[in-house]
Fold these 4 entries.
Entry 1:
Amino acid sequence: MITSVRLAEVLGTSEFNINQLAEAMGLSVNRNVQQNLWLQHGYMTILRNNWHLLPYEQLLTLLGWSAEKMAYILKEDDFCWNKLGRLKPKCPRIIYRSLTCTEQTRTRLLRDVVRQHFPVINREKFHPFNFSKNFQSDNRKLDNIELKANAPLRLVYSYFGVYGDPFENSFLDPYPDNLLASYANLGINGCWLQGVLYKLIPWHRAPEMATGWEKRLRNLRKLAVRAGKYGIGIYLYINEPRSIPRKLAHKFHNINGPDYGDYGIGVCTSLPEVRDYLRHAMTELFRQVPELAGVFTVTMSENPTNCYSFHHIEQCPRCHSRQPEEVISEVNRTIAEGVHTAKPSGRVIVWSWGWHENWAARAIDLLPPNVEFMCVSEAKLPTKVGGINGEIGDYSISKVGPSGFAKKLWSRAKNRGLKVVAKIQVNNSWECSAVPYLPVNHLIEEHLYKLASLEINDYVLSWTLGGYPSPNLELLDKTSEMIVKENFGAAAELISESYKIFSEAFRELPYDGTRNVYNGPVNYGPVNLLFASPTGYRATMLGMPYDDLEMWRANYPTDVYQSQFLILSNGWKKGLKLLKQARKKVPPEKIANWRELNDIATAVYCHFRSTYLQIKFTKLRVMKSHEHVVRKTIKILKEEIALAKILHGIILNDNRIGFEASNHYYYTPSSLCEKVLNCENLLTGYKEIGYNLVHSMNFDKYSQNYCKKKIRISI
């Protein structure tokens, strides 16, 4: 992902030395590294992989970023700072030096392990971000399709859209024509991107925050015009007003809201000047880009916006005396006024994400009549998995909505005469976001049927995950039976049965609140490293699971949490077995469809099974090392190696596996290779060096029984 020239610059050596070291470790030297592509679409992967390795200054050199760009990405790019744990570990500067004789020996041993597990490692087989070939359109005429005003809303995020500053560079096209054509063929009529207002419309108090705003608006307008030719409207996600970078806080001293620490200083929306900017910015945005279809708002998210959004209300004497529903509805009213001043037909969708049940209904009553109301369909849905009661804190596929809470809020909005929208996930969710879609058609059909019975037909179908133009999106207009027959012919019956087994197994996923899916290893699967001793790090939101079993399990007892992933992975394995049996009946012209489904389903199994093994490993390591514990642990390590190798083979054939738009690649061939080395290191019982997180575990005579020879390796 990074050229040897750049690595040499970071480490203070020559390109020759870097290539020589790579070859010495058994890694192929890729002469055609697409560094720019990684730096534009995969920087989150680079950040995660080096967060514990490089000090801040060397990270900047590696990425080729200024300190200002790094600060913006950490603050505004889909909660990046949260994903990295809101902590930069202290790392010593890494400078190249020649290896000692001992280190050369250990490097050769490391190379032997790599060659043992990956006899032919050819990273050039992996073509990251080359998704376009998967987006296909039929022969229908797609140009100049009229955007139908009364058509049900079908809104998605680009499968590979850049999140942080999507309009900065025209090269970062989140919606190429072939993707728009694929969406149009599926009936998608809306696509959304993040819009940070101070980057799009200057605030007179600190216009330097908007440097390059003219270019951003030009790029936005080009996209809106082009998408309109496919009958697709462009919407902006508005989460405003954003907090002010600390170094500019003095320019906003008399309109400040709470101090949000790492996130900067807030501005108070109870002040007319702040609302005036918000209103003006929205008006100017739609004047400059009249082709925009609309916006949807979030007012209680992880980004601090109004004084209630981060629950720091005690710091604001103005808002402290007001009710939350007053502040929230006022912000949404101001945004709507700005939009409708420039474009009366612009859609303003108010999303209740994060609203508290004590005042959510009253907030709806205070909304203006010309907005639409959206609620997550599964919001506060009660769950009972493994005998443990819980509640959905975010969107879900394994737990079928809608919830009573959502139905109550939709009913309240309808009684006010507001149009209502359901926020759902059809392709995937944070329950497993590393695949483009989950083969659980029965759950999705059940959900869509329930929404239709409530006469709710307008959907936002994805967050940053879930935007792939997949067969799942066809379920909006076709039955699963129809889709399976079209895609698999004579094998349809067996394929349908495997979908049913996958769906029933997926119901067993332990999910309460958000911690299980946000902080657990399920999204990273086999690539998450194992640690022989506790790291002391807390699992981060969709960033680094580490070994934080307490955070992973949330309110589930450890045994129940472990057993549910065993039930889930065993059930999924049964579905895979049936899927493989179906291959014999698939017509030759449709075999590519079967291969795709099999790869995706197998990758999901690797994630679920590895999560079970990681739970079991982490639980066992705190026990005294009796012989039976050591045997169980070694068995776990060997299976983890097998799963990592299976997934390694899959991603060489399908570059969609492991990718999600806001987190980029969860894993690459190299990182899965590292996991194998990590497990081999633990198997031999020797001290692991690499990330300085895993300590020695001495298996004594037991390692002799399971390993042909002891190998000391450093990652």
Note: Residues 686-715 have pLDDT under 50 and may be disordered.
Entry 2:
Amino acid sequence: MVSNFALGSGLALDRASRIPLYQQISDQLRRQIAQGFLSDGHFLPPERALATMLGVNRSTVVNAYGELAAQGLVEPRVGRGTQVRRPSEASELEANLRALPWPELLLPYAESVSSRVLRDIVALCSRPDIISLAAGIPNPDFYPHPDFSTLFQEILTEQGGHALEHCPPEGHHPLREVLAARISASVPGHVKVVPPEETLVLSGSQQGIYLVAGALLGPADLVITENPTFLGALSVFRAFGARIVGVPVDEQGMRVDLLEEIMERRRPRLIYTVPTFQNPSGVTLSLTRRKQLLALARAYRVPVLEDDPYSDMYFRPEAVPPPSLKALDMAEGGNQVIYLSSFSKMLFPGMRVGWMAASPAVIERALAAKQLIDIHTTSLYQWAMARYIQRGLLDKHNAAMRVQYRIQRDAMAAALTHYCGDTLEQNQPNGGFYLWCRIKSGESGLALLERAARYNVAFVPGGGLSVPGMSECEPYIRLNFACARPEVLEEGIKRLGAVLKVKKPRPARPPTALTHSGQDLKPLV
């Protein structure tokens, strides 16, 4: 068959352009169809012939034709070639011509495996039939919504629209005062009082990680984290093009003895740590290692970003954690530590109010960047949080949650022993939200999750919480014991135990999606 289209007619490729060659070909053919040079029923040249004429791979032409077919402008004819299907309605053709090629216009984005895992787990957990042990949230049964309903009504009655207007971008001053007072009270010996000016109210601590990364990190800069660590931080650092080096943890937290060697050889720009009831391992950095870490940071002049959402969630009086790195640093007159915390774990995830405490220079830089993102954190929430803390309600709530979450931890631990004792090895954290469990068979947590989806239970696989290039966490899973009632936790663990008892299948090819009842879900990797 001979095409009635002159090979390569009117097609010119710019090989220096950022627009892919296949897109250039499809765009130009689309214009020729619109202008009537290629009329309805005409055949485009064979893929191989056009590729030869243009000096490109055949796959480039295949992709270009595929783009046109997706837009309804051409149709493959078996044994005959690709035929033009000029839209009958002018408006349909004009719409195709107006459509912007967004994938080609958007700049590259370094999305990590961790962020894709997070997104896909959220999609999986949104199914009503799933028992989720994955999300890092408190138990919804204990959200203090009556207190906040009262506070919102009280504030709106007193302040009217004033409480709904813009507030200073650095935060509602009464809230900054109570936050500064809480940090000051934690400093050993109270040798320094933190002024409100050294605090910044955030829309959650995740925003703080982003602001600090934007201020300190450029492409190929080095960040040191624990391994495993919080996947939200991994995603941010990867998005800024940073290289990440992971330091293993043991029962006393980050292996600071290994950290010194890394710092001497690699000279990092930032150390990121969750030192208290670490996410996901649950371990707490010992006081000795905290002091060693600060000494190293000072010796090598490296900032430390301390992420501390869980330190109020200890389960026994003797499990009260050591002073924060920030408090220890201030007690010695230092300014190495940038401190982040959030109310999302203490109260409820919709409370997107967090805070940063740092040197004035850091606060000023973070504030300038924050104003470009959201102007300020929600005003009404800030008013309410200030009063909630001032009236002692936060401390009262945290005390009650310490009792409840210990009950839930013990319930999950007992269920794991009963249903998974031969297949999982669990830790026993003294606080926080998570059990960090090793799969004794060595199966990866991701593979187990793909199987567990069929049993309607979800968790976070260890590989998604691991520093890229480090595989030690692959046979681990993170289970949240704080997110549900004990009976729900037990049912979730019962389902997990059933998955682990089923011999792992040997598929003819690697699985590409999570499947349940015939419904394919987006692949996790």
Note: Residues 1-8, 507-525 have pLDDT under 50 and may be disordered.
Entry 3:
Amino acid sequence: MAAAHVNENIRYEPNENPPPLVTIGAGAQAAALIVAPVVLTVVIVARIAGQSESYMAWGAFAALLVSGITTVLQAVRVGRVGAGHVLIMGTSGAFIAVCVAALVKGGPATMAGLIVISSLFQFLLAARLSLLRRIFTPVVSGTVIMLIAATVIPLVFDSLTHVPEGTASGVASKVAPVAALATIVTVAGLVLRAPPAWRLWSPVIGIAVGCAVSAPFGLYDVQTVLNAPWVGIPVGAWPGFDFTPDPVFWALLPAFVVVTLVGAIETVGDGVAIQRVSQRRSRATDFRVVQGALNADGVGNLLSGLLGTLPNTTYSTSISLAEVTGIAARRVGIVIGVLFVVVAFFPKFTALLIAIPGPVVAAYVTVLLGLLFVQGMRIVIQDGLDHRKAVVTGMAFWIGTGFQNKWIFPDLLGEGFIGVLFGNGMTSGALVAIIMMVFMELTGPRRRRLAVSLDTEALPRLEEFLRGFASRSGWNAASTERLVLVGEETLTSMTSEEDEPLNGDRPRRLVVIARKDVRGAELEFVSAAEGENLEDQLAYLGEAPDIPDGREISFRLLRHYASSVRHQKYHGVDIVTVNVEGGR
């Protein structure tokens, strides 16, 4: 276990407070980039489904309102709701197909009811995330993040030629590539070589350069901005919601639930990734942050359903923006959310952002998606990549990409439930990854289980349990002693004199699960304890030889004899996974 990695790119961590101008500047540029996709997704769905202009206006207003509220909620974290990080919320592109179907077959009220019901499954997943830890692994999360980039990038490339109606086609064909090239060269150049102060403003500068190139040739749609009112609320356009369990409702509900869970997987990946790019000193993933992100995502979906607009999700652009700017302070998330709410009441500003030429937006988003794809790869690789994980990642990614681009059985899927389910590459790829992980769990070596109270009196029973496991596995004496030592030191590290019983005087329970793996054994210690992350303590040992901690000896022995240690903290549950090499 090497010393913790230091990320020198981070200028401000989540708990730090940048200067007000830096906070407002970083929040404003992020909001400027995300406002357009939040609104455009609603407009696209409404136009495809043939909805009225009044509903379109209400949907855009409600989407901005919900996105702003939930972005602030993610940043500030209220109880168990929110990540405490800058996770930007916005309308989910994964719901486009199912929402169009709901609008066409049942109307806005039916779509709203389906969104409300399906949002409850997201709260359930957040509450039971620890039980699914072997399924929603870093391999699955990282693969989904890569699939997000792979499924969105074709739409981004299509936008490279998107220009306002009425623009001369010959002029557009010549100017659009120039505007896109000017934007991407400016952004990439500033990110690669500019000093930190200039790198912070690279998105705004790149978009400004692209707009400056586009405007003289009519690619910037000024008329849309002129026609929009300065202030306005689409009063009376709320569609309500309908929970009538008619055949249309039941036919569409499974698709909404599946897409909701797939969106939750994306949020899990974003919750893991934002922690990796927000801290200078590398720390173990805190799954309480992930649970908070899922709960806030569920609140967003619930509010979206109640207000009759498209569901919310975390935008993975949050990770790329943190990497590009080096600013992860949660105050930036508050600024972004407040600006979303403000812009919702000022249609003129929304129109100003929507009018940014498609080639300019596409060029900048290409940079962000490139960073996002690499972040997904990093999550998969840092978890340790063997041949099994490689097969899961490779097959899930390429099958998802194949379905997304209609390379796999395009004539057999049709337009029904199967077509909607597998037509989205993120959905199909995530399902493949989950099915393969479930298969590996069901066909893996048999697990041995021990349940005891979490105290020092558990040591004799743990030793007996581990020696019996080693004997059945045919291990030699040296490997057996190493296994017992690692188990005892893990238990010692999880207990201390400062620990207090939970639930009054009831002692904490510890469940130890042992199973054979390729190199030896995997021990999993599951308890209801709360405290410092053991994985971070072990990493810190590599940096500071002297630690004023009474458990220092246990930490050092565990670091020496275990081949790997992983500590996952959930609300109310601690899980320490230790790998020990063994031989016959």
Note: Confidence is low (pLDDT under 50) at residues 497-504, 533-553.
Entry 4:
Amino acid sequence: NLDALPPRIATSLRDNLEILKLNMAMTPLIHEIDLGVELDDLALGPLDDAKAREFFDLIESKRLGARALNAWDYLGHVTHGEHSGDDQRHAEVPHELLSGQGVLGAPEGGFSGTVGIAVEWAHEAGRSPITSMAISWRSGVEPRGIRSVVREIPGNDEAATLSGLISVVGTVGIVGASLKELVRRLLELSLAPPKIGTDVGLAAYLMDSSIGDYSIGSLLNHYRGSIPPLAPLASTGPAEADLFSSGDSTALASEAAQAILLGEFLEAEIRKADMSWLYSEVELPLLVVLAEMEVAGIAVDRDALVELAKEFASEAARLGESIRNLAGRNLNVNSTKQLGEVLFGELGLAPPKKTKTGFSTDAQTLEKLKGAHPIIEEILRYREVEKLRSTYGQSLISEVGADGRIHATFNQMVARTGRLSSDHPNLHNIPIRTEIGKRFRYAFVAPRGASLVVADYSQIELRVIAHLSGDPGLIEAFTSESDIHTRTAARVFGVDPGEVTSQQRAKAKMVAYGLAYGMEAYGLAARLNIDVGEAEGILRSFFDAFPYVRRYMEEVVEKARRLGYTETEFGRRRRIPELSDENFRVRQGAERQAMNSGIQGLAADIFKIALVNLDRAIDPAKGLVVLQVHDEILVEAKDEFAEELRDIVSATMEAAASLRVPLAVNSYVVQRWGDAK
């Protein structure tokens, strides 16, 4: 059936037929072997909490640890650590029926304090209907007394049912995990979201951005020993057959109750870490702003995307054929092994780097071979085009909704530096350095009667470096209102600004931006395609010209080593325990993280503050924020208000923070994103 398959897959199967046969022979399980044990011999005993955590810390696998400990609890093998036998500390969580507009058994006068919320989705969170909701609240005087109710959400009455449930909550703050997804769904149904009290995932992310999984179960395992466990739920309402649609309802009630306990603990931790302002005034409001952006989406020219995808597919096919002609034989251009055989065997090129499995053909290796043979440039071009075709050509088209807009998801709890990211699709990865990549931006448009206000921070990371280091030369370069990269190049290479060449400016620019990411001589050499010795000389010259920058880098690493974390001026922390690792290479990598975390973290804080302030400053009747990418914000404005909103956006972004150098914003009013320059 090879002829019916896509060429790349057919070629791969044809070239690896013997391996495929071996895989098929080895795949069936052999189950006739006498293991020498019976099932009873494999029964699990109680879990030793401390030893389990010590083991998973040893193998450095927090996610595996969370999954394993979750499974242990699910199987009923309870912890015999500090809570063993301490029935006073266990929360009793009965559940009752949540019916119509009221809660049977809810306290008279409504709820007070906080209310735990947990929801069950039909499919992916935030992009599908909600099938069940659990609500938990404190009941009586018992310190740990929490009651929970669960209500199924009829598929044909989701909006009305959710409206009733949210009205029950009233004006108290809700507590839960991944509340942005809940807010997004409510907004999609044109329902006003309730007040957010605590998002436990967001709070835990601020405390430790390396946890990764911020679900209730994962956080309970992460803070095991700090959160008192809940006792098994006991049904006190109608028969379970009438109350629940599945066995998951009890777990959902537990999740809502545990959210309250986690929220109380994490709020106290946030206060102790002095991050209350960052949490309550920036991250929590931003949660709602991002949900609004996701619901709004951004308009796209679908026909333009289809045309681009066709063009890239055609170009990739042409380049593939050109590479095969230059190689003098048929080969799979996507096969590293076959490319290595052609380049370093048949064509006799000198391999700059070899891996355990053969000769490397990565981008860095091919860049060093430029000019050695015409096939190198063709391979690099093919990879660029093929990546754009496969990553953005078809995937962007598939993400266009029925309304002609792309509704990306913005991630607030992924990047350890505090930066935002996106997926479905990942708009942050749309390339901007190459002309061919920029063409995708022309497919993002303003709808009829509207314009796009595009605004981005100018050299925000370098301005943050100037602020944090207090370097007089760097501050003077920014306050002189001349080209910053020309000014820095003049100081680095010891020439007058008027004598700076384009190459010198490019090198100084690369150093300046590289500092924000902890780039060293090796990375600079790869970026500039120069040898490491020259790169080291350029870095030395930069630090000689701006000595306060070197001092800041050294001091921030030393402080992070002492405290175990870096901290921005707004209180954002990043834990870096690897700074005390015995392995030199691990420590070296951690030092680079420490250098860039303060810079990236402060830039992230400024950008998030700007987004929150913009949401408050822009009248929804005039326009709305529709997209955020790196240091760039896109606002969809009605044509008659476009210039007014451009001024508001620029002023709001520039006023987001007060640094030793001014924040500068470039802003444009355009019809297509790609027109902003």
Note: The CA atoms of residues 19 and 25 lie 10 Å apart.
